[in-house]
Amino acid sequence: MEILKWLTDWYKSNCDGDWEHSYGVKIDTLDNPGWFVNIDLIDTKQDGKMISIKVENTDDDWYSIKSDGSVFEAYGDFSKLPFLISKFKEFVESTNVP
Question: Burial of 26 by CB count in 10 Å (0-12 exposed, 13-18 middle, 19+ buried)?
Fold first, then answer.
């Protein structure tokens, strides 16, 4: 579960006494079934960074990733939770900026 350690470290690096009171990371389940990851970007190094990806291979193999610059949202089938978090890691580490 190395990717969870990475996410924990990213979260910790953004906790400054203020940020964590208004923003954060949310992981939830979907009823189709699947996963939802919501990560606030405001006042982080990723603030303003955008992305939009949608892949639908089958009913059991799909994901969607988007960021409007203030929130990173990722949705995926029941097997995709580690993958979705790894896509956030790629998003954070990419040098593409708006």
Answer: exposed
What is the C-alpha separation between 79 and 33, in angstroms, rounded? 9
Please compute the mean of the pLDDT values over residues 64-69 and round it to a whole number: 98
Instruction: State both tokens at 18.
Output: 């203020």
Strand ranges (E), the chain: 25-30, 34-40, 50-58, 61-68, 71-77
* 0.90 exceeded by pTM: yes
The 8-class DSSP code of residue 28 comes to E
- For residue 1, the tally of other CB atoms under 10 A from its CB is 9
Strand order in the sheet with 61-68: 25-30, 34-40, 71-77, 61-68, 50-58
